[in-house]
Design goal:
The chain is of the alpha+beta class. The protein contains three helices and three strands. It has a three-stranded mixed beta sheet. Strand 2 and strand 3 form a beta hairpin. The longest helix is centred in the first third of the chain and has 11 residues.
Length: 83
């Protein structure tokens, strides 16, 4: 697996390319801001992708996983919007 260091600015300007290279070429990107490594874009392992596909096509949620009135699933943290 190849690793490439880039600035956060370059990553944002070429985000689709970084994602595609991570997915299809297995490249890991280390993102730097002001010379300090702050994040990574890492390719997903094939086994994890397969598991996610299986989960997406699995049976409907059980009663305890059904959303409550406020829209959150029982026992599961509600996802927060980042934007």
């Amino acid at each position: 697996m190849r690793s490439v260091s880039i600035t956060v600015t370059d990553a944002s300007r070429n985000f689709a390319d970084c994602i595609n290279r991570a997915r299809y070429q297995g490249t890991t990107f280390i993102l730097h801001k002001n010379g300090v490594a702050v994040a990574r874009i890492v390719p997903e392992r094939k086994s994890q992708i397969k598991e996610e596909r299986e989960l997406a096509t699995s049976e409907p949620a059980t009663e305890e996983q059904q959303p409550s009135r406020d829209g959150s699933a029982a026992g599961v943290e509600r996802a927060r919007a980042i934007w």
